[in-house]
Amino acid sequence: MTFVQLIECRTSRLDEMNRLMDDWVQRTKGKRTATHAVVGTDRSDASHVVEVLEFPSYEDAMRNSNLPETDRVFRGLVALCDEMPTFTDLDVVRDESLPEGMVRGFFEALCAEGELPPFNDLLDEDVHSHDPMNPQDTIGLDSVRAEFRMWRGAFDFAFTVEDVLSQGDRSCARWTWYAAHQGDFLGIAPTGNQVTMTGMTLFRFGDNGKIAELWWQHDQLGLMQQLGALDAMEQ
Question: Do 141 and 32 belong to one domain?
Answer without folding.
Answer: no
